[in-house]
């Protein structure tokens, strides 16, 4: 009798995952840029939050979430610290958080991606699933932004153009 051992191949490297995520962030930033100032803060469809509030949520999750993962600190989720009044404030904070993401993401070892972490004291999943949640949540909210832009008669960027 022979025994066969399958070698597990890594599907994606951490550098590739970060590049993928940052591609989504680049696209979401372009969506924020497209909104007229007033509509960014006021326009909604079907009772959904205006896109500025969705952007604040995304800003409040990614950087703080990664910082918590790296430092092993579980802090409650809060959108109360950042209260922008202009599109420029949102874009500036978006860019700052991009650097925070780069800084903390690169401190997560390959082994840590498999460890369980209780994100914001609410979601206990492996680190890689928490990071995928950040990306999925952003895609979801960006989709809402696409609906808003189309309702405003604007053509959003192609979803595959993430540069």
TrEMBL record:
It comes from the Bacteria. Keywords: Metal-binding. It holds the Pfam family DinB. A divalent metal cation binds at residue 141. Transmembrane segments: none annotated. One of its GO terms (molecular function) is metal ion binding. The keyword Metal-binding applies. Belongs to the DinB family. This is DinB family. It comes from Chryseobacterium taihuense.
């Amino acid at each position: 009798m022979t025994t066969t051992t399958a070698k597990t191949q890594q599907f994606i490297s951490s550098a590739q995952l970060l590049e993928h995520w940052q591609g989504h962030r680049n696209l979401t930033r372009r969506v924020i840029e497209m909104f007229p100032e007033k509509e960014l803060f006021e326009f909604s469809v079907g009772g959904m939050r205006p896109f500025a509030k969705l952007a604040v949520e995304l800003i409040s999750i990614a950087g703080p979430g990664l910082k918590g993962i790296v430092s092993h600190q579980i802090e409650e989720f809060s959108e109360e610290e950042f209260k922008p009044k202009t599109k420029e404030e949102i874009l500036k904070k978006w860019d700052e958080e991009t650097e925070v993401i780069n800084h903390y993401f690169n401190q997560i070892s390959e082994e840590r991606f498999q460890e369980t972490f209780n994100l914001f004291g609410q979601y206990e999943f492996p680190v890689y699933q928490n990071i995928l949640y950040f990306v999925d949540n952003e895609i979801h909210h960006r989709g809402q932004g696409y609906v808003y832009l189309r309702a405003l008669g604007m053509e959003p960027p192609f979803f595959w153009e993430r540069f």
